[in-house]
Specification:
By secondary structure, the chain is mainly β. The protein is built from one helix and 15 strands, in the order αβββββββββββββββ. The radius of gyration is 21 Å and the shape is globular.
Amino acid sequence: MKKLFTGMLLLAASTLAAAQSEKEEKLPPPAATEDWSFKPPLVTPGETCAQPPSDAIILYSGQTDLAKWEHPDGSAVRWKPDGDALVIVPRATDIRTKQKFGNMQLHVEWRTPDPSEDKDFNRGNSGVLIMGLYELQIYESWNYNTKIYYNGQAGSVYKQHTPLVNAARKPQTWQTYDVVFEAPVFRADKTVEKPAYMTVFHNNVLILNHVELKGPMVYQGYPKYKYHDAKLPLQLQEHGSRVSFRNIWIREL
């Protein structure tokens, strides 16, 4: 009788745990993580772009040789080199570096296409995925001509942090991101010892000041950390828009 009672208790506990797990996995609608509460004021940036320092790892500088990059499936890059730029080919999927990085200083120059090419909510839509997980959003956000939630506009840590100001330039104009990224640190038991942090200058204007990241980017639901390697590839997102990139470099910290 005691064994039967114990078995019933174990079965009840297992059923309750399964029900709780199913409840926890039910995600909120995507709009639940859209932040419209703070509209960053407009700031007019300067015109100069930074040059790479002597100890930088040059990832793209206008060369047609894309040996440092690949698609996530390991195939050769299908994006289109155009002069000193590299242009996204829609539906060709993201690209990532073959080299892996952790703590870094990152410089990326990017340019959104003619807005008439894209549909609403996809104007110049791309992103810089640091470690392939933590997204710094690219979007056509000049003068708020394109409507999107503020934690999804250019310069946001996607759906986590709204930029302090909107320093975006006009479409079809080169823009810069200068990023200092501190990778998360995990304990031996794979729990988080220290979260990731990010500081970002957009067109030489400080827009994110050592913000704490809540976990990898998610579109639906709330971010949370899962254990991953100390170094992972840098990834550029293909989201159907012909965004261009040039002058990409990293300094390992």
